[in-house]
Design a protein that fits this description.
The protein is mostly helical. The chain is about 70% helix and about 0% strand. The radius of gyration is 25 Å and the shape is elongated.
């Protein structure tokens, strides 16, 4: 389904909105994976607030799936999704022509060199891109099953038989990574052709969560030290040392 737009600026807004969603999905997925990897090294620290960290992990994955389902949505009409955007590009190839490109970048000092490298969208590649964001693609189909039965709507049958849904449509972290990478590659492909820009996925502060966990570690160690000192003052051994476990406030 072709999307309607009145100007190059409106097309840019559509493309940017879709890419922003995908970049956000990347950030949330990266944080989810990093936190999951930290569970072994910071097991004691995470155990101080298990409810908070459990909900945090769940929220990050919900944010990922929501944005992915929105990007790969197969709904037509006015929905901003990858399939509709690519159909729109195929119907308006002239917006990528050099005169239009130069007009969009008329204030850019490097417009001549950028225009010299400019190529129109490859229609063979465009068709391949359409195919891999369509419901006929196995991974997209699986994601849409999650959308229709769990994310956007909760299927009552699968609610009563959750193991059946998991067995039919297991969605692995590696597959989520593929879907995110694929969508960003496609979006950036046409963003570069449109106005020589691409959305980066380098997240500033990606390891901020380590500051929190290390602060908790310092608190735990300080609490343990105070307990040890108190037991020494009382002239006996700390129960923590006798049990070989941790005992903190």
């Amino acid at each position: 389904m072709k999307l309607k737009f009145k100007s190059a600026e409106e097309f840019r807004r559509l493309l940017t909105a879709l890419l922003d969603d995908l970049v956000d999905a990347t950030f949330h997925f990266s944080l989810h994976q990093d936190l999951a990897k930290a569970t072994e090294q910071y097991a004691t620290e995470l155990a101080q607030s298990p409810t908070f960290w459990g909900l945090t992990l769940s929220a990050h994955m919900d944010a990922v799936l929501l944005r992915l389902c929105r990007a790969y949505d197969t709904y037509e009409h006015t929905a901003l999704n990858l399939r509709n955007l690519l159909d729109t590009i195929r119907a308006h190839l002239s917006i990528f022509d050099e005169p239009n490109f130069r007009q969009r970048l008329k204030g850019n000092l490097f417009v001549d060199s950028l225009a010299a490298e400019l190529k129109p969208p490859d229609q063979v590649q465009l068709q391949k891109d359409i195919e891999v964001v369509s419901n006929s693609d196995p991974l997209v189909h699986k994601l849409m099953m999650w959308r229709h039965n769990y994310i956007a709507h909760r299927n009552s049958h699968f609610t009563l038989n959750p193991k059946k849904f998991d067995a039919q449509y297991p969605l692995l972290f590696a597959e989520i990574d593929v879907l995110i990478t694929r969508a960003l590659e496609i979006g950036n492909r046409y963003s570069l052709l449109f106005d020589a820009t691409a959305h980066a996925t380098l997240m500033v502060g990606r390891d901020d969560y380590l500051n929190v966990l290390n602060s908790v570690r310092e608190h735990v160690e300080a609490s343990e030290h105070r307990l040890d000192e108190e037991w020494k003052r009382l002239g006996t051994h700390s129960p923590r040392n006798l049990r070989g476990g941790a005992s903190t406030d």
